Amino acid sequence: xxxxxxxxxxxxxxxxxxxxxxxxxxxxxxxxxxxxxxxxxxxxxxxxxxxxxxxxxxxxxxxxxxxxxxxxxxxxxxxxxxxxxxxxxxxxxxxxxxxxxxxxxxxxxxxxxxxxxxxxxxxxxxxxxxxxxxxxxxxxxxxxxxxxxxxxxxxxxxxxxxxxxxxxxxxxxxxxxxxxxxxxxxxxxxxxxxxxxxxxxxxxxxxxxxxxxxxxxxxxxxxxxxxxxxxxxxxxxxxxxxxxxxxxxxxxxxxxxxxxxxxxxxxxxxxxxxxxxxx
Length: 279
What we know:
The protein starts with 7 loop residues before the first helix and ends with a strand. The protein has 279 residues and is α/β, with parallel strands linked by helices. Helix 9 (218-226) links the parallel strand 6 (180-185) and strand 7 (231-240). It has helices at 8-16, 24-36, 40-45, 53-67, 72-76, 100-108, 126-134, 147-160, 218-226, 246-256; strands at 78-81, 84-87, 116-120, 139-144, 165-168, 180-185, 231-240, 259-265, 271-277. A 7-stranded mixed β-sheet has the order 5-4-3-6-7-9-8, with helices on both faces. The protein has 2 domains: 8-69, Helicase, Ruva Protein, domain 3, CATH 1.10.8; 83-277, Rossmann fold. The chain has 10 helices and 9 strands.
């Protein structure tokens, strides 16, 4: 005797009981949307809609992956960031909403109409592509050390139809000599051995994109120092960092000689980025 068909609401309720994340209902709805091609609004408007056997089997398979801790973005293969939908793989960080604060901060700066910008450690290309989407006249270069990340950022640029140049480089090492109006980065900033590395989605992300020395500031120190040689007079450095690193990062900026130094908060009201101007 075949198993009775489940409605959308019944399938979602079953999934919520298996998914142990912080947002089981949201996760379940995203997975069901992937399986059915329907919007989350439709599930709410027509909760009594029955799933086919094939849809239910596929949905339960994805739920099982999520219940084992695999990130939603890796299961779906994509993640929304800014106004873009980006391909995501396990080779890079998953773009997070709080990183959109870097994009907002950069767009608020008084930069030339054809500003020269570099996004270091670009990963999926999220920051660079969001800036290009909003400022079509900017000349944006993106760099990453990991070949798979370089290829991914290039695919995302093509996917979004944006003219992003992506090169392989460890920070500035392989960048052709030039000056930029804006250097922007979401570098690694987690301390070695931090307990958060064994929790949540970061368990499935590369340590090279997360960890930066005993205090988490090695990459930021390097970028604050090196960016001086690449910024135009009056150019800006914008860096993401940890919620508890604002004071330390401001000190690094001050010691290096930046002005207009400011730490801004993310959507959760935590210190998230610091910016400064080079004279």
